Amino acid sequence: MFLFFCEGKPRRIFFACLIVLFSGFNFHCSRAQSVAPTQKAGSRLSSPLLQPATQVQGLIVTPHRTRGGKLSAELANRQTARLSDIAELSLHVDRPVSGRSHLLKFERPVTIQEARAIAARLKSDSQIESAEPDFLMRIDSFTPADPGYATLPGQWHYMTPDTGNLGGANLPDAWSMTLGSASVNVAVLDTGYLPHADLAPMLPGHDFISNTSITNDGNARDSDARDPGDWVAAGECGNGSPATVSSWHGTHVTGTIAALMNNGVDGTGIAPNVRILPVRVMGKCGGYISDIVDAMRWAVGIDVPGVAHNLHPARIINMSLGSPGVCSAAFQSAVNDVNATGAIIVVASGNGAMNAVNQPANCSGVIAVTAHVVDGDNADYANVGPEIMISAPGGGCGTLDVACVIGMDMGRVVYSLGNTGTTSPVSDSYALKRGTSMAAPHVAGTIALMLSLNPLLTRAQIKSILRASARPHPVSSTCTLDANINLCGAGLLDAQAALTAIVPTIQIVQERQIVTPAATVDLSADVLAPVGRSVTRYQWEASTSNPVVIAIDHADTAHASFIAPATGNYVFTLRVTDSSGAVSNAIAIIKVNSAPVITAQPAQQIMVGQSMQLQLQANDADGDVPIFHASAMPVGASLSASGLFVWPNAAPAGNYQIAVYASDHDSTSTAAVLVVSVMPGTSMMIGGRGGGGSMQGDLTLLCGLIVVIRRRLKKPVHETI
């Protein structure tokens, strides 16, 4: 898929630009969109977006994880005869794509409808997990052309909110906490960057554009992420598409995140001390999904075929790009892989004034950002939908403000870095743009500040803080209309509130312990206060629901202790306060457990070749059912979990010492020694409970002989003379 942008268009032809830019890109994905998107409630757009046919050059094909071994081998060897037969069109392997996929090119460009039909035929093969058109994505931004824009007040979008500026991101107080850290890397997946007097040196980036028809720099992928310009002639991006000048879009986005502060050069960025990883994915007319998903993985340190390993993985990815349609399988797979590394993806929602969010902003696991204007109203161009997490300054006119004129008072736009060149770069300048492309880097920059304060924050914690700290949408604005409830996210971005909500991080050394009565138990924690703050108070507290009251030694430190009482479960809370007054809590759970005690058994005797049974006993103070086990068992002997010792046909003769144990779920008794002597000679059988038994066999015969002898001794003697 391909991403486009709309640059240098005055407001009177703004909607015409939207129609041209977003026409024909509701591309096929792995599942159908169940409800057709409609215009956002309150929108002043009077006609639906047109969707003329679009040319597609290839498919992203992914073999099935378990059934696709043969297909994977075929693609690796560039064998496509079988797939071409299924597709009913000649296909060839263009290159491997990250995420187990390959890009297959058609013998000729086809319409989007043909591409969808071919993908459907391929997906009938059980070896294929997904097949989808490789569409172009668009850049989601607008550049006002009115010369008066340059005379407007500067970066309202960073300022503290007040009655004349409800939309400011509230950065001044946030900057008093941090300007960012060089340990935080932010990847900007965009048109590339231009060196600028108001930018620090970039990290080594990469150009991921593989199609030389759109690179504009004379070659395909390479390690040069600079922006050569993305100007196009009329009709170059499709029939009826207008001529446009170079946007320098990536440089503008980069400036919003990290333009330098207090350097005597006009303007600033949100997090001037963080480092930018430039990743070029957008060229003339946009950028392909197959290139973008490779770039996403590479940006966070996941290796991509044919590209050198990224030595500077990013914690944050900003993607001010997209196109209409549901999230494709290729995008979702890349998002999943990026999220697995712990990185965070921020994506613009799109500029179609629709109640449907563009992909990849509608993929699960990203932070989708819509745009608002200086009065806090949702921007008239901004897409909304249930996937939106938050709104950030994007500039322009509000949806409900019919009298707004861009560049005049309420029509303020976003001020950041640019270049004077209309085709190739010429000299540094500043540019005014509007769009969800401008909103997304406000969120990415704020997250960079958050991670600068506390690098241990997880993606889930960051999302939770952003939601909880957002300011409500202004009363009677677009997002408070009944039709738009739950479509605009948690509210308006508030950087100061987000940073204030960051509390000390507590890591309990042993969150769960099992100890014995009377043991000394350590309650220890490692605590990290946000950068620029210090811990002012520690307090360990025992839960009031504990079985007994416990005295804690050194409860006002990070390392406390107590003497374990009788058996039971005990809960302790560490409360930490930092110098800003922020408080965090963590819990430790201690189980006091007594191991079972085995009842002593007397030594046992048994004659060789006979059998023995003995029931062992154990007591457990906690009321647990003991489980018996033993070590060094004689051959043929067994001990059941319930404690029944059985030894049939005991042999050979000798003295045996068997180590027997009893366990509960948490601990094991000390060893009890069961002594068994197997006696040589006449066989015996010992049975019953606890030893003892009867003698049989030869003993019975002996008794019989004694009886006979006694009877013969009593019989009268008859003699014959």
Description:
- The protein has 13 helices and 34 strands.
- The protein has four domains: 11-137, no CATH class; 147-500, Peptidase S8/S53 domain (Rossmann fold, 3-Layer(aba) Sandwich), CATH 3.40.50; 505-592, Immunoglobulin-like (Sandwich), CATH 2.60.40; 604-695, Sandwich (Immunoglobulin-like).
- The termini are far apart.
- Helix 7 runs parallel beside helix 10 and helix 8 packs parallel to helix 9 (329-340).
- A hairpin with a 3-residue loop joins strand 2 and strand 3.
Query: Which consecutive residue ranges, at least 5 long each, have pLDDT under 50?
Result: 1-35, 45-53, 142-151, 683-709, 711-721
The portion of residues forming beta strands comes to 25-35%
Largest sheet: 7 strands, parallel
Q: pLDDT average, as an integer?
A: 86
* CATH architecture type of the largest domain: 3-Layer(aba) Sandwich
Features of this protein?
721 residues, alpha/beta, Rossmann fold, Immunoglobulin-like, 4 domains, seven-stranded parallel beta sheet, four-stranded antiparallel beta sheet
Chart the SSEs and their pairings.
Elements: H1 14-22, E1 55-63, H2 69-76, H3 81-87, E2 91-97, E3 101-111, H4 112-122, E4 128-133, E5 136-139, H5 172-175, E6 185-190, E7 206-207, H6 212-215, H7 249-258, E8 275-280, E9 287-288, H8 289-299, E10 316-319, E11 321-322, H9 329-340, E12 344-348, E13 367-372, E14 388-393, E15 414-419, E16 428-433, H10 436-453, H11 459-469, H12 495-500, E17 505-508, E18 512-515, E19 520-528, E20 535-542, E21 559-563, E22 568-578, E23 583-592, E24 597-598, E25 604-607, E26 612-615, E27 618-619, E28 627-631, E29 638-639, E30 644-647, E31 654-663, E32 672-679, E33 685-686, E34 693-694, H13 698-714
Parallel strand pairs: 6-8, 6-10, 7-8, 10-12, 12-13, 13-14, 18-23, 25-32
Antiparallel strand pairs: 1-3, 1-4, 2-3, 5-9, 5-11, 15-16, 17-19, 19-21, 20-22, 22-23, 24-27, 26-30, 28-31, 29-30, 31-32, 33-34
